[in-house]
Amino acid sequence: MLRGSHRAEFYWEGAQGTGARIASALRGWEHLRYEVTEDPGPGSDGGRWMHTPDLGVFYAQTDSSGNVVIPEDRLRYAMELAGSNTLELHRELRLALGQAWDDELEVFRHASDDNQVIWLHKVG
Predict the structure, then answer these.
(1) Cβ(98)–Cβ(46) under 8 Å?
(2) CA distance linking residue 58 with residue 86, whole number of Å
(3) How far apart (Å, rounded) are the C-alpha atoms in residues 86 and 88?
(4) Contact predicate 35/45, CB 8 Å
(5) What is the signed CA dihedral for 60, 105, 25, 42, rounded to 10 degrees?
(6) DSSP SS3 for 108
(7) Confidence of residue 123 (pLDDT cuts 50, 70, 90)
(8) Where are the strands (E) in the chain, listed by range?
(9) Number of folded domains that form the chain
(10) Segments of 32-85 assigned E as strands
(11) pLDDT digit string (tens) for 3-58?
């Protein structure tokens, strides 16, 4: 975690589209790291908005299990851009999945009161 930082977690319920409104309201606070998750409902997909000061905002559609859904045209774009370069394809797919945002936010997800982060400085 970052020295002097604080972590908060808030569970909410609301109409579909509330997640986008929450993420938009938080966007003006560029120094925040946050994640907003909206579960799918009847006739609508779920969504996840992630933000870090260095990376900005990432949005992804999610399925009923919370998995990120990559649209077909985004996959086609990644394949077209990468051509036969598998490393470039991997890079594009990590970008489409929001991997950099997940990597940066992961430590904060596990730092709740019930699950303290333990830093290992020497292993092996």
Answers:
(1) no
(2) 24
(3) 5
(4) no
(5) 40
(6) helix
(7) very low
(8) 34-38, 46-52, 56-62, 68-69
(9) 1
(10) 34-38, 46-52, 56-62, 68-69
(11) 777 778 888 888 999 999 999 999 888 889 999 999 998 888 899 999 999 999 99
**9 is a domain residue:** no
121 assigned to some structural domain: no
At residue 41, the pLDDT reads 87
Query: Whole domain around residue 104: which residue ranges?
Result: 18-109
Give a yes or no: residue 11 inside a domain: no
Calculate Rg over the CA atoms of the chain.
17
In a domain, 122, yes or no: no
Task: Report how far residue 16's alpha carbon sits from residue 29's, in angstroms, rounded to the nearest whole number.
Answer: 23
Is the CB of residue 49 less than 8 Å from the CB of residue 36? yes
Looking at the DSSP assignment, which residues form a beta bridge with residue 36?
49
Encoded tokens for 18: 């509330």
